[in-house]
Amino acid sequence: MELCSSKTLRQVIDTEHLYTNTDRAWSLFRELTDGLAYIHAKGVIHRDLKPANIMIDEEDHVKIVDFGLATHVNHTERQLQNQQKRLQQVKFRMWFENIIQF
């Protein structure tokens, strides 16, 4: 585990008025989504993502921290979730087609 002596996203939002610098905000957002995609690909779900659990280092890179509530989703669970999503999509399509017919 590395030492991260930097600010939280909450501190950056509050003290540096991040909302006024859209280029920086989008850059941080892209890094955050890349980090989330990485941990999700490894089967990890954070479950407590909030600005206080996102660190911004001196070089303006994002670090996701505090995995205390994280859970691991195994391959079978992910397959079931994907199948469930597909089933929900089919149900929606059937419902939508019925509405169009009337």
UniProtKB/TrEMBL annotation:
Keyword Kinase: yes
Residue ranges occupied by any Protein kinase domain in the UniProt entry: 1-102
Family listed: Belongs to the protein kinase superfamily. Ser/Thr protein kinase family. GCN2 subfamily.
Protein's organism: Protopolystoma xenopodis
Name of this chain's protein: Protein kinase domain-containing protein
Record PROSITE patterns: PROTEIN_KINASE_DOM, PROTEIN_KINASE_ST
Coiled-coil region list: none
Xref: InterPro entries: CC_SR_Kinase (IPR050339), Kinase-like_dom_sf (IPR011009), Prot_kinase_dom (IPR000719), Ser/Thr_kinase_AS (IPR008271)
Gene Ontology annotations for the cellular component aspect, listed alphabetically: cytoplasm; nucleus
GO molecular function, one term: ATP binding
Keywords, in A-Z order: ATP-binding, Kinase, Nucleotide-binding, Transferase
Pfam families: Pkinase
